[in-house]
Design a protein that fits this description.
74 residues; mainly alpha; 4 helices; globular
Amino acid sequence: MALMVELEPAPLRRLLKKGLRRGLSTDGLRTCLDSDWGFDLESESASELLCALRERRWFMQSQDADLWKTHLGP
């Protein structure tokens, strides 16, 4: 959690925070990307952001459900 508090910019912190615990639905992700980043979920910018977070294993889509989850541990 300390890592997340230090992250910049603030929209990144909000996105990762929304993915904690229950996770974030695809509709919720779409809303978050639009309101905080000005990105459409299908845009190249959103794809690059999600790909970078996935590569770091910080934010990934669950294979079992329509949820995006934050993973900040080992």
